[in-house]
Design goal:
With 114 residues, the protein is an alpha+beta fold. It has one domain (2-68, 100-113): hypothetical protein PF0899 fold. It contains two helices and six strands, in the order αβαβββββ. It has helices at 2-20, 41-51; strands at residues 25-34, 61-67, 70-73, 79-81, 96-98, 105-113. The strands form two sheets. The protein has a three-stranded mixed sheet with strand order 2-1-6, covered by helices on one side. A hairpin with a 5-residue loop joins strand 3 and strand 4. Helix 1 (2-20) crosses helix 2 (41-51). The mean pLDDT is 94.
Amino acid sequence: MHEYHIVEGIVKQILEKAKASGAKKITGVTLVMGDLSGLQEESIRVYFDNLAKENLLEGSKLIVKTAKSKLKCQGCGAIFEHEKSNFNCPKCFGPGILTNSGKEFYIDNIEIES
């Protein structure tokens, strides 16, 4: 249920940006969601569709891109994508630690008709 309030905030931001740009209709929205964000894409879509009724977002296409989490090797400092259950660096096989990458959730693009 925590997704509802997050999506509600995102929808408000989208509508404000679109209105400031003089949009008559929003045709598409692209969101970026990290794989460690704790959010469920299905819930995001349901809440987005419900909040997109009777406003500039109605009928718009929602695209959700997943951002992979990244690790930083404690040995050589390399940054690499986190693979499930594998925290080892592909260069030196040292242990990797999580970075902030993969926790994001933000608006990447808004397509409008003026």
